[in-house]
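Exercise: predict the fold of this chain.
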Amino acid sequence: MGKIAVDLEAALQRRDVHGARGGTQMRTLAAGEGWAVTDVLCTLGPCDRPYEERHAGVCIAMVVAGAFGYRSRTGRELLTPGSLLLGNAGECFECGHRHAPGDRCVSFHYQPAYFERLAADAGFSRHDATFAHGRVPPLRAFSGLIAKACAGATDAAPFDAWNELAVDLAEATLQSTRADAKRHAPETSASAWSRVTQIARLIDEAPDARHTLAGLAQMCALSDFYFLRTFERVTGVTPHQYVLRARLRHAALRLADEDAKIVDIAFDSGFNDVSNFNHAFRAEFGMSPRAWRMRCLRFDTRADGFACRREATKA
């Protein structure tokens, strides 16, 4: 996830150098009437004991780096980059890093009355506005929203752009959770969580590497079949889907931050064919890499939402 992940790794290194305990740093990115968005950087690790917290309002947090366990009234989930943490107002929860240290989230918080109003305006019931599960897995519907949030977290973004993103995220989450209301993931063992967490971290740290089902399964000392089922049960997506989305997120942020040629970004992100990259990118983000770069990947300094950073870019 580009600079997002680099900042997390730097914070973890500083913690190790100074021998300090892990902690959480929160930075408010924007706040309006009924909503707020914060950049949350956590350096807690396996040696830090989890503690219980409470959601003051409705929470939809985008996980943009790292991985951690999330336990709430709705059950236990593994949160990985590209997934969403969901929290209902007043509910207690606990986050833990039993298998690997650190994470970073762009967290949207809504006052209950405001969130219910958003839900009603979008055609949802009050029942829909209460989350039945604690996580939305890395899904295509959120790829563009997460990429925009990452760009906004690393570059000063205008208030109106964050406001629009808060509304869009709420609607997309409500649509996803209502469609997935009957989902019930079976409990998985601590060993399975540990193995999948390490593999997810490996993929996120090097999305361009040649990650095959057989190779990843071998690292876990599992059969291809058992690894596939275990990974999908824990993360909510298959290994192939996870690798593909990690590569596309990596490419999307590079398109925003760099003037490199699109073909070079495609190859550097793990794609061996430019036409395949273009097809996958369009399917994930709803537009071509060139259009994404030109239209909406960077927040402009003007208060007019996501705007193009440059007048012309390299192809």
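Check your answer against the key: The first strand starts at residue 24 and ends at 32.
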